[in-house]
Amino acid sequence: MDMARESKRWVELGIIEPAQRERILALYAEQGVSLAVLGILWIGGALVFLGVAFFLGMVWDELGALRGPLIGGIVAAFAGAGVVVRRRQPELEKTGVALLVIGGLLFPAALGVTWEDLFGSSGHFFPLLTVCAVVYALVGLRLRSRAFCVLFAAALFFLGEEVIRDKSFNALCPLVQLGVVRKLSDVFPLVFLTLGGTLVGLSFLAGRKQDYAHLRGTLLACGLIVALLPALVGGVLRPFKGLKLALAIASCLGGMWLSVALRSSRNFWFSGACLVGAFLILFADVFDDSLAFTAFAIVTGLLTMGAGSYAATRKNTWFERWFREEDALVDAEQEAPQLTVAAEAPTAAEAPSSGSEEPQP
After folding, report:
1. Which pLDDT score, from 0 to 100, does residue 339 have?
2. pLDDT (0 to 100) of residue 299
3. How far apart are CA 63 and CA 72, in angstroms?
4. Which of 109, 235, 257, 314 is deepest in the core (most CB within 10 A)?
5. 291, burial (CB in 10 Å: exposed 0-12, middle 13-18, buried 19+)
6. Nearest to 199 by CA among 265, 140, 122, 283
7. What is 146-169 written as a DSSP string?
8. How far apart are alpha carbons 197 and 156 in whole angstroms?
9. Separation CA 133–CA 118 (nearest Å)
């Protein structure tokens, strides 16, 4: 939430006074971290991770039995450093999270090496990915971290890849058992739509809890990415191309509806862009004549731009009311009664004393 914009709106609505707005902005300036600082932290963290990964890649074959202890120690070092920094230096909380994320990115490699040393290599990564997803979910829940929500979504995506590749899961698929499809990979978008739906459901649950409301948009974005991008890829692959393309269009429309329900304009634009891509795939098959497709695209584009231009000239339209800032309305509704009560409460100087006379009729 943009506190400067929202606090200005609160002043205009009479919820708070201008002096109170200045104190709120000063408090957030002390506690918050600017976007530029966050960018510097994450760029630095990415460089550190890449450096460690390249170093391990260079010496991997020479390490032998030391691979497990070494990478496990590196993961423990980054995780421990992140915990210590977050607890002892609250103003460096984002730095601590960045260190924890570096350890989280190296965690799958450490877990894989340990698993291979203990049980040997089976070529199946489903148990490892499951453990990683659970760890990322627990850490993200404990820290209320958007970064670990993204890692959790990535782990779910690779779990979907493993489910499609594993023959045992293919045998358990009802569509394969009924003979509708030959293998699960023929309808692989269904797997990712299920995983994306799981993330979207988690975003709804996060939005119901004040402590986790800030994760709602991140989880919704991850769910739409996990669901829609594979659906678009499935729309250009055979077999069942028509079915997969229909699923892609329906999923994009569903993503746009969910974005409206959760008041997330960014996710609405992403879903809309995916819908345009799905229609492009559809029209490329429908229009055999490239000239007809060109004319259709130009006319449709001009009509859409005209509708957008009309909406831009109108104030307080239904479209704008749909897409206010994500958490602005909820936060304002929650805070308005408290601030109003505080404003109406009499001060010590104004409160009547116990010995004051009764007012005369």
Report:
1. 45
2. 83
3. 13
4. 235
5. exposed
6. 140
7. HHHHHHHHHHHHHHHHHHHH-HHH
8. 11
9. 21
